[in-house]
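In this section we walk through a basic example: taking a raw amino acid sequence and producing a predicted 3D structure, encoded as discrete structure tokens. The instruction is simple. Fold the sequence below.
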Amino acid sequence: MKLRIFTLALAVILLVSIFAGCQTAPAKEPTPEKTVEEDNTPIKVYTLNGTTGFGMAKLMSEDKTNEYTVKTDASDVTAALISGDADIAALPTNAASALYNKTEGKVVMLAVNTKGCLYLVNSTGETIENLAALKGKTVYVPAQNPTFIVTYLLRAAGLTVGTDVILDSESYAQPANLRDAVAAGTVDLAVLPEPMVTMAKAKAEKTLEVSLDLTAEWKALVGIDSLVQGCLVVRKAFLEEHPKAVEAFLKNYKASVEFLNENPKEAAALIVETGIFANATVAEKAIPKCNVCYLDGAEMKSSMVAYLEALASVNQNAIGGKLPGDDFYYLAGTND
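The resulting token sequence is shown next.
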């Protein structure tokens, strides 16, 4: 009798165990997806009026978080970066390199924002199809960067500056002064940036032709598309403290550049509205020839290295005495 009771009890325990084993385990709560931490720290952004600042227009018109300042002189922008009054800024590429060297690496290049925007304008009535046709002529060029670029191109074309071609960068050192001289017919051959070319053609007293696109000449002679004249930089300390804020800014800035190139009429109105340029009609005509772009990562670095090496071969001081180190180039968060 005891054996039968024990056997029955054992069977009951076994059935309970089997039943319990068949129960569905309680569902686990889904693990919430981790969200990328945002940084809404206001950024102090400086830009230049003219081509270097064109790509900033839409962003400036819509951005309610960051603080924007437009300057006419690159030296004011570099001074603001040094003092900390600016966190991010648009600058000529050689000025960015010089600032890196001056501050011993305290600025970082985020992106190229302008390729070449220089053109040879001609009111002589002669056909000038290549740089070799400039032999025996005097060409007026704005001082500093345009002079270095044209000198390099003439050397690459086998011409000697001062012997084969005279470059005058003293008579009209500022682009605006040279533009006015071209428009008045005082100067027949000159190198001008856009939008100065468009402005000169609109006011020219003689027929004014664009004979050479120096960006195309550079690519043909150098072999790569590395004439890059404008860029975006950031203070290294700000980048280290606020990498998410910088990434968010770059995303919006890239979209602003794309809007400029796809919608020149609307963008031109914003360029005037934001104080980057004074004439919407001129800006609209000039935008397709300004080569405003957004290059980052490896493409940015390779273009800049080639460009700075070219300038250094003409004048080391043009880039601040030496090539920047690898830490000059921001490669994180890019699509390369």
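Looking at the output, two observations stand out. The radius of gyration is 30 Å. Confidence is low (pLDDT under 50) at residues 1-36. In the next section we compare this with other chains.
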